Amino acid sequence: MPNHTDSLVAPNGNHRETTSSTDVYAVHGADPEVLAYGMAKYSRSALSLRESLAELNEQKAEKFLNTFYFQYGHRSIADLAHIALAIEKLSILAATILVDEPRWDGQERSTRYQDFQKSGYYVPDFDGDTTAHQLYRDTVDFLFAEYQYFSEAMFAYLLERTPKPAEMKQEAYERTLKARAFDLSRYLLPLATNTSLGQIVSARTLESQVSRLLSDPHAEVRKLGELLKKAAREAAYNVNYAAAERALDEVQQHSSELAERVRQVTLREVHAAPTLVKYAEASPYEQQSRQKLSGAAAELLGSLPMDPAPLVDLLEDEPLEIELATTLLYQHSHHSYRQIRGVVEGVSAAQRAELIDLGLRHRGRHDEVTRAYCSGQKFRFDILMDIGGFRDMHRHRRCVQILQDYTALHGCERPDDIASAGLAARYDAAMDRARHIATRLSTRPVAETVEAIEQSQYVIPLAFRKRALFKMDFAEALYISELRTGPAGHFSYRNVAYAMYEAVVRSYPDLAKYFRVTDVRQPVDVLKR
Q1: Of residues 96, 95, 192, the one with CA closest to residue 139
Q2: Residue 486: strand, helix, or coil
């Protein structure tokens, strides 16, 4: 009896030999766009990837991508090209906007393990306003000086009250306490502080990221979009270049012809995504929608005083049209979701429909709907927390995040250890000064009021609170609550994650047994963090 895993009978009666062995192999060395082209050919060719790559070159890849990606709209092809990018010396404010992508992988400099004293900071273009420029520089310099003072003072305080275990090495002991001190002093860092990050994203994510950045109100962020697009199209940094040059110099001594042939293969310039991002531009849809919805939010909420709000508010279910209209206004205001929802529920159905329409009216043929329309999740948390802690929570990509702008209106957090160290008055004075200057800079009588507001945000320290709406399913609520309440985490997001857990349990008590959270009310060993 024939083995049907080894041979098949073709329709004409002839036997066609096959194999049942699965072939798995890693691929290295192909340019991102060429690799994307090779993998895309699986749907249009019987060739193996080895065979496809052997016959490919950059020109073929570009022609293919121009046809199928741009003309026919097969955008999933760009998911196959992944690009590693380093983005260095950008402000923390710009970094949070840059990484605000659902499909993003990367790492940023840690405020826990690195001293940001020498990082430098971003200075906006004040267009000849020397008074505002000097006020800005003086304020940021002051906050950096306070950051250094609190880093040293809190380290000394922790040394004094935390005995070193006999079995712990002095180096590890001091490193742990310095990390804890940075957890406290980071509250003084302004959003202008320079940071660095690396990201590995698909060309599709990069294209949408560049478009989003080019559409942003912040001048620094728009410039960042231009630099990302340029980096994807120009020659990439080749980590093996120096070593290859040395090896080729040795080959050159024996055969100049061979050396030249090898040089053309090994030292050629690689362009990460010259084709896939070449049409990435600012999005009129995003810009026009922002303008219209900002105007609607100002009209409906501008004179409404902000009600006090808890750290975490788990929202009840509501009709979808209520959620959509409320979310669209939420991202362009500083009010809580609950307060905005009350206003939305009080207007007519026609007015709600008009709000929903505003966010879709300017959508082009290839524009994805904005994130505010990602609605219908069961667990929705309106969170008001310090900016530093938000940056940690912001890493959770499996939930939908709707963010409000930075502001000093919500006040700031003060860690308990700072008060215990007798530094509360100095800390509060620093925060009051930053709040006062942010207000002065935002209310300057400049031609573009929005620009003044954007510039003023850079002097806001990480201690100030930011509001964000997190929408998720039960599995993600479980994951965040368990992960972020761990004793090694920062006390800021530990409190938020535990409040999320408590909110779910209040509404769904039968689910409490499934949460493996750490009680944040219990004392934590500083040296085990």
Answers
A1: 192
A2: coil
3-state SS assignment for residue 8: strand
Closest CA to 463 of 392, 411, 402: 411
* Alpha-carbon span 266 to 261, nearest angstrom: 9
| Rounded-to-integer distance, Cα 265 and Cα 53, Å | 15
- DSSP 3-state assignment of 216? coil
The helix (run of H) or strand (run of E) holding residue 200 is strand 194-202
527: which DSSP letter? G
Instruction: Provide the residue count of the chain.
Output: 529
Nearest to 123 by CA among 88, 87, 85, 94: 94
Q: Cα angle vertex 252, ends 248, 255, to 5°?
A: 125
Is the four-CA dihedral 59, 62, 64, 67 of positive or negative sign? Answer: negative
Q: Model-level pTM?
A: 0.88
Residue 464 · residue 430 · CB < 8 Å: no
Listed residue (385, 382, 380, 381) closest to 466, CA to CA: 385
Q: Which architecture characterizes domain 284-411+463-528 according to CATH?
A: 2-Layer Sandwich (3.30)
Q: Which residues touch 311 (CB under 8 Å, ≥6 apart)?
A: 383, 384, 385, 495, 496, 499
d(CA 65, CA 36): 9
CATH 1.10.260 corresponds to the domain 84-235+418-459: no
* DSSP per-residue letters across 357-372: HHTTTT--TTPPPPGG
Higher model confidence: residue 156 or residue 17? 156
Rounded to whole angstroms, what are the CA distances from 267 to 237, 238, 351, 513? 11, 8, 61, 59
* Confidence class for position 4, pLDDT limits 50, 70, 90: very low
The candidate with the shortest Cα–Cα distance to 496, out of 419, 391, 411, 416, is 391
Other C-beta atoms closer than 10 Å to the C-beta of 290 total 19
Classify the phi-psi angles of 353: left when phi > 0, otherwise alpha if psi is within -120 to 50, otherwise beta: alpha
* In the chain, where the domains are located: 25-80, 84-235+418-459, 284-411+463-528
Confidence of residue 7 (pLDDT cuts 50, 70, 90): very low
Q: Which of 39-43, 245-249, 261-265, 421-425 has the highest mean pLDDT?
A: 421-425
